[in-house]
Amino acid sequence: MRLEEEFSHCDHYDQEEQPETMSQCSIGPLQQQQKIVVVGYALTSKKIKSFLQPKFEGLARNKGILFVAIDQNRPLSDQGPFDIVLHKLTGKEWRQILEDYRQTHPEVTVLDPPDAIQHLHNRQSMLQCVADMNLSNSYGKVGVPRQLVIKKDASSIADAVNKAGLILPLVAKPLVADGSAKSHELSLAYDQYSLQKLEPPLVLQEFVNHGGVLFKVYIVGEAIKVVRRFSLPDVTKRELSKVKGVFRFPRVSCAAASADDADLDPRVAELPPRPLLERLAKELRWRLGLRLFNLDIIREHGTRDHFYVIDINYFPGYGKMPGYEHIFTDFLLSLVQSRYKKRSS
Ligand SMILES: Nc1ncnc2c1ncn2[C@@H]1O[C@H](COP(=O)(O)OP(=O)(O)OP(=O)(O)O)[C@@H](O)[C@H]1O
Ligand SMILES: O=P(O)(O)O[C@H]1[C@H](OP(=O)(O)O)[C@@H](OP(=O)(O)O)[C@@H](O)[C@@H](O)[C@@H]1OP(=O)(O)O
Ligand SMILES: [Mg+2]
Ligand SMILES: [Mg+2]
């Protein structure tokens, strides 16, 4: 068992936020005595910087959680031992390493299973769960925009769009969402003729007017946090009749585009009802088999309760989630405690 209270007896870690990095701390036989929760992480340097902030590491340490960098050049089994493995790296080889490790180390919680994450790397399968769910209750209705997959042959896009009855404008998104810069290169197509300029493989999604604000719903296990971000502005009928072409747009809803403090129309700014999001998150956690993700959800402009999920991301930028330090540490501890309960029952 590795519990917070027991850890606080350890004189090596009982002071306020220690200045040295966690990876300098020794683990091994000592760890058994101190009942530390050891979290191995395999993340990009960008992610380490945004996620493993000093305040977070300090808080975690005080709660008995030790973060240890995984060395990708050494066998995973020779490292640790870990209680939890956190990861967001791509590549078939890495996936296989994790899969093998899960088989041989069932006592370790790997967040999350590589196969389940793979599901989010394709913009079609990513939203399938939301479509299947057909969530509709007294709090509102949640769907996905109508969309079409184009695997190849740009010259056939206009025909395919016509056949499927999709309505312009369309958001063109690379089919693969693997975190590469290219996978975030999106464009807005205003007219049929220009569709041939697009580069498959892609997903064409109907653009839904939503008042220029979207909601990012961060999920960490059972915890949910919602923030507002600026998004693409509505496209008017007049604009649609005048504008021709395909336009690349940048990452409009990045962290710098926080709309939480903006003076917005309350009908646009009002957060989606909490019970609706709770239900959505719970179902998605179960259907996707994931515990760490966020989703982008928009409210159809002019409605109060028609929502569309447009994107789901694995292990998103939690560093920007308000209060992530406490939410995340509590989550990590709860994982270990529930494992202990399972073992002792
Ligand atoms: N169907 C849609 N209707 C209206 N706006 C949309 C739609 N799809 C995407 N957008 C706008 O485009 C932005 C980027 O789309 P999306 O979130 O799918 O891309 P992404 O590159 O996966 O983003 P992220 O950085 O969150 O991973 C959204 O944040 C939103 O502003
Ligand atoms: O770069 P940021 O910190 O903003 O985090 C973004 C994260 O990048 P990172 O994994 O490199 O951190 C993205 O992952 P990839 O799709 O590129 O894999 C994606 O999840 C975004 O949605 C995150 O933005 P958020 O949704 O939280 O605003
Ligand atoms: Mg998004
Ligand atoms: Mg995304």
Descriptive notes:
Residues 1-15 have a biased composition (Basic and acidic residues). It catalyses: 1D-myo-inositol 3,4,5,6-tetrakisphosphate + ATP = 1D-myo-inositol 1,3,4,5,6-pentakisphosphate + ADP + H(+). GO terms for molecular function: ATP binding; inositol-1,3,4-trisphosphate 5-kinase activity; inositol-1,3,4-trisphosphate 6-kinase activity; inositol-3,4,5,6-tetrakisphosphate 1-kinase activity; magnesium ion binding. This protein folds into two domains: 3-112 and 324-344, Rossmann fold (3-Layer(aba) Sandwich), CATH 3.40.50; 120-314, 2-Layer Sandwich (D-amino Acid Aminotransferase, Chain A, domain 1). Helix 4 runs parallel beside helix 12 (324-344). Strands 5-6-15-14-11-12 form a six-stranded mixed β-sheet. The longest helix is centred in the C-terminal third of the chain and has 21 residues, at 324-344. Residues 1-33 have low confidence and may be disordered. The radius of gyration is 22 Å and the shape is globular. Helix content is 32%, strand content 23%. With 345 residues, the chain is α/β, with parallel strands linked by helices. Bound molecules: adenosine-5'-triphosphate, Myo inositol 3,4,5,6 tetrakisphosphate (4MY) and magnesium ion (2 copies). Residues 46-47, 50, 88, 179, 216, 254-255, 294, 313, 316-317, 320 line the site of Myo inositol 3,4,5,6 tetrakisphosphate. One magnesium ion (MG) binds next to strand 15.
